[in-house]
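Q: What does the predicted 3D structure of NADH-ubiquinone oxidoreductase chain 1 look like?
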Amino acid sequence: MSLISIVSYVMMLVCVLVGVAFVTLLERKGLSYIQIRKGPNKVGYMGLLQPISDAMKLFTKEPTFSIVSNFLVYYMCPVFSLFISLIMWVVIPYEVGLLSFNLGMMFFLCCLSFGVYSTMIAGWSSNCKYSLLGSLRAVAQTISYEVSLALILLSFIILVGGFNFELFNKYQEFIWFVLVSMPLAYIWFSSCLAETNRTPFDFSEGESELVSGFNTEYSSGGFALIFMAEYASILFMSVLFVVVFLGSDFSKLFFYIKCVFIVFVFIWARGTLPRFRYDKLMYLAWKSYLPVSINYLVFFIGLKFFCFCIYN
């Protein structure tokens, strides 16, 4: 890896972390207006410095440690979670000297599967029944929706003929994939909600029945890292949704407007949808999403074969 690639990646991570700070502000302001109230408006102009104030408060608070927790594993899980959330950004195909490898989609699927381990081990190492229940829920729902996510990505791998995310920019120059595969876009987006533990699929947190679930025992810095990992994942999934379905010309401002809109839809979903019953997600993933994903996979295979026969 060249020096310019390392510097570019570090600069991007700084931008991602700043973006995470202001996504939290956007969420708090968005939810407050949905609930007809003002939200953060005291720190800085219209509350713009509220994320910095929150970060300072969280990282300077005294950490609390549960006596029965498995201390080393318990405190390393948030670090691992944030690491996974940030390392996934290498697959985004910026043309400014960043890493751009031909197996980006495979790397993304591997990181996606790794993400659940931090949640699972955090719940186990806390030695708290609520945390353990939350982590078990996370494992069960991951098995359910990641099958559909992988099949959708496999459909597009067949359509674009490679594993590099740069190919999506090339193939969506004239028409966006969302127009030819609208059901897949809906499935992908709702699976992203489940992947990032967002309403209506936030079963691993479940405040009403699990007292915040897998992160019940975390406070101060550990909680802040879990918080940052979640919002970095939301930002990443929003950018990836735009890359896969809405065209990905990174040199245009419109790309970033689309990303902000998708982030807002994440927040919109949280402000309007109630939490699903747990078995409803399983039913949705296995009985609804999986058949549609398989049908589209067969359709794209047939389409690719038809095009191959015509041009050869």
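A (community wiki): The structure tokens above were generated from the sequence. DSSP finds twelve helices and no strands in the chain. The radius of gyration is 20 Å.
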